[in-house]
Amino acid sequence: MSTVALQRRRTRRAPGFARRLPTLLFNSLSGLVLFVVLLGLWSITSMPIRVSVDGVADVVHTHRRTVGALLLDLGVTLNEHDRVTPPPLTRLHAQMKITVARARPVQLWADGAERTVASWGMTPSAILQDAGIDVNRYDRVLLDGASLALDGMLPPDTRPLIAATYSRGYAWDNLRLTPLRLRLQRAIPITVEDGGLPFTIRTTAQTVGEALRQAEITIYLGDIVQPTMGAQVTPGLRIFIQRSKPITLRLDGRVVKTRTRAQIVSDALVEVGIGISGLDRVEPELSARLRDDLEITITRVREEVDVLEKIAPFETVFEPDATLPIDTQQVMKPGAEGITRQRYRVRYEDGQEVSRQLEDTWIAQEPAQRVIAYGQLIEPKTFVTADGTSITYWRKIRMLASSYSAATSGVSKDQPWYGRTYSGEKMRKGVTAVDPKIIPMRSGLYIPGYGYGEALDTGTAIRSRRIDLGYDDDNLELWNRWVDVYLLWPPPPAYQITWVVPNYPRVPN
Fold first, then answer.
1. Given a cut of 60, is residue 10 above it in pLDDT?
2. Neighbouring C-alpha atoms within 13 Å toward the C-beta of 417
3. Full-prediction pTM beyond 0.85?
4. How far apart are CA 11 and CA 7, in angstroms?
5. How many CB atoms are located within 10 Å of the residue 88 CB?
6. CB 175 within 8 A of CB 53
7. Strands 245-251 and 146-148: what pairing?
8. Residue 285 in 3-state DSSP?
9. Smaller CB count within 10 Å for the chain: N or C?
10. Per-residue DSSP letter, 441
């Protein structure tokens, strides 16, 4: 088709396109409205889930059915050492809380290879075990170039938040995960001859002196070591030690055997680097001549000023506050312990106290009460049940619920009070056994999953946060779980209210 004919064809089609333009615009607008409606329906039907990753929480909305599928959508990759609560196969429900704790990443150089592992280990030995690397007690680890024992504690795993200059997605995407850098250094064998049979030690030291120190071989100033203490350690190295005259030193509650080439006691002490203060005692005297296996006793004498503190505990007082909502507490005064100080002059010999003299006594701080206010403000609150019914209540208590019926109450059927409650009412569904100190008798209750109830019974095991839900014998359902118990409006008189409910049984986190 020629260019002129094509232009004529386009000219003939132009008026028809102009007539269809409003229809196309209407269809586009309808599609946009439909997209907005579908997006709104998606948002309404999605479940809000609170997800916490490494202590950083965010709320997400999802249509996924399991914890694992949701984490996969969120891009939270897990390895075998990561901890997920609840487990990945758990089904999701609205307002669910998911906690993910990821193991620390570690960059590990060992045996000429580099690898990246994840571990909860608090020591190099634990991390190497997680990585499947065998070590012996002579090997050592370098942490960022610094030596660290295999059982030494690693620095805490800190994961700071990056300053958000733009949106990075979810809150935990701002976490900075800096891997720990560890390098395993293998020990090598060397031979030592120390006046007897040669023996082999394994060391990671760079010099002879460091190797002998690691092996706890004491070298004194009078000894001769070949090669020298600063010589480089190489595989198969042999070290020769020539000892000097043996003497025994008793000082600071320990016995030290050493060797020296000195002639008198004072020179020997200077040679091994033992200082003598004005109050110290030395036996034999400093001018005495040395002989083989001479025992020198040094008694360290010092005086110190010791300040002791006697702590008087403070009292905690609970006070009502009509402006605070019920079941809330607020510390009004933190309290302070009383402190009495005494100054002593103490004399020590070889680290043991031999005398103590009191010089002064004074009161450094008077005790102050700690005051905690508990709420007494009661206001009507509403709760929408699963079937859409709205109830009004004045208090909600987290309680451990069990269930019972006349047949399971422990009363024989031939007893006249069989099937009768503490209040005289006949046993049936809706009867609940409570602690009257916590829930006044004949209080109206609502328990999700059970329905409406009335406090009409008690029990010897029903104390504080325990509640027993009554049933007919033919319809008994077994309960053993924590539930929210709603005390229906109106509230009882103030004298019947226990304002602070004991935490028994202890409410789980």
1. no
2. 7
3. no
4. 6
5. 14
6. yes
7. unpaired
8. coil
9. C
10. T
